[in-house]
Specification:
The chain has 164 residues and is α+β, with helices and mostly antiparallel strands. The chain contains 5 helices and 3 strands; from the N terminus they run αββααβαα. A 3-stranded mixed sheet has the order 1-2-3, sandwiched between helices. A hairpin with a 5-residue loop joins strand 1 and strand 2. Helix 1 packs across helix 3.
């Protein structure tokens, strides 16, 4: 099966599963679930659905169990939507990408606050001790005069025939 067809099938499955989770699944365990990605095997018999669940670990595990219990219902919705010999068997995995991004963001904000606090405590006024001082990268050293376009003026190319 072509890679393009697999990608189209995966996107169709993602759309069906995401809309069904939002509008049709009544399971109280399945809340705050976002479908991130779907990977389909080349024979279209299995599909791994990566989901993100907002909440603590217990809520995430409950949501995954609720989704596994709703897999048959979701497969019937997929069968109505896509024309294929087999309806893929769904398995749900928890995608930690968004949570990891939030943790990295918090760490960066903490580092920024620590740098600001250390900058306030050392108000000596000496910018040469600054780690990111701009003196090192002064514009005089990288002057644009060396790469001036004056030597390639339009006067030199007027007489040349540019067509072969």
């Amino acid at each position: 099966m072509s890679n393009r067809r697999l990608l189209k099938a995966a996107e169709a499955i993602r759309e069906v599963v995401a809309s069904s989770i939002l509008t049709e699944i009544r399971d109280p365990r399945v809340r705050d679930v976002t479908v991130i990605n779907v990977q389909v095997t080349p024979d279209m018999r299995e599909a791994k659905v990566a989901v993100s669940v907002m909440g603590n670990d217990a809520q995430q595990q409950l949501a995954i169990r609720g989704l596994q219990n709703s897999a048959g219902f979701l497969q019937s919705k997929i069968a109505k939507r896509i024309e294929a010999r087999y309806t893929p068997k769904l398995s749900f995995t928890l995608d930690k990408g968004i949570q990891n991004a939030l943790v990295v963001g918090e760490l960066l904000a903490q580092i920024k606050r620590e740098k600001e606090e250390s900058g306030k405590s050392s108000d000596s006024g000496d910018s040469s001790t600054d780690e990111y001082s701009t003196d090192e990268y002064s514009t005089d050293e990288y002057s644009t005069d060396e790469y001036s376009t004056d030597e390639y003026s339009a006067d030199e190319t007027e007489g040349e025939n540019l067509n072969p």
